[in-house]
Amino acid sequence: MTGAPxxxxxxxxxxxxxxxxxxxxxxxxxxVHCAHLAIAEHTRxxxxxxGVLFVPARVPPHKIGREITPIADRIAMVExxxxxxxxxxxxxxxxxxxxxxxxxxxxxxxxADPPKPWNPTxxxxxxxxxxxxxxxxxxxxxxxxxxxxxLAVVPRRGYPVEPVAWVAEHFPGFEDRVIALDSxxxxxxxxxxxxxxxxxxxxxxxxxxxxxxxxxxxxLYRPGAPDVPDVPARDRPDAAxxxxxxxxxxxxxx
Length: 254
Description:
alpha/beta; single chain; disordered N terminus; 29% helix
C-alpha cells in the first residue's frame, strides 16, 4: 500500500494532485473477476479518488469479428460485482455506442460530461497494467490520450518494467502523466476462469459470489459455447500496430 491518499511510490513521476479525481477501468470483463475489484479499490484508496468507473467495451477493437459474451450479460456481471461499493460505478459510454471504441475517444467523451463530484484539477486517471502499457504505441492516438488523462499503472506478473522510465523512453515529455502504483498482483485471468467454468471446475474466490451465481444461472462459458483467447481491452491494440512498434499485450482488464 502507498501512504496517505494522493501519495504514491518513489517511482511515480506525477506531481499533480489526484484527490477527488476519477479512475477509469475499462475492459471486456468477460467475466469481471476479483483482481479487477482489488486493483480498482487499491487505486481509489491510494490516490484518494472520488470513485472508479468500470467501462465495459461493447466491441473491443482487438476482438472485432470474434465472439464474446453479450454486452448485457457482461454489464450485469459488473453491476453485481460492484453493488456493495458506493465508490464504484458502471459506465455505459462504450456499451451504448455501436462499432469499436477507442480509449482516447472514451476519455474525451467522459471529460465533456464528467462524473460527479468532479475535481477538474485531478481529472481522470486511466487504470491499466504495466503489460498493457507496453502496447501503448499500438493504441489509437496514444499521445492525445496522455494529454487527456493520467495513467495509473499497476504491476502484472512477469513484467518487471518500470513504467515511468518506459514512458520517458517511448513518449518523451509525457513521463509526468504516469503514476506507478504498487498494487496487488493477483494473477487472475478471465480466459482461465472461462476455461474452468467450461470444465465444470469451481471459480469460487476467483469471481465475486454474485458473479459466480450469474454465470451458473445463465449458463455462460459452458461446453458448446465458443471461447477465444484473451487479448483484453485496455490491453487493447486500439489500432493496427505501426511498423516496428511493440505488439499489444494482455492486461488486468480482461
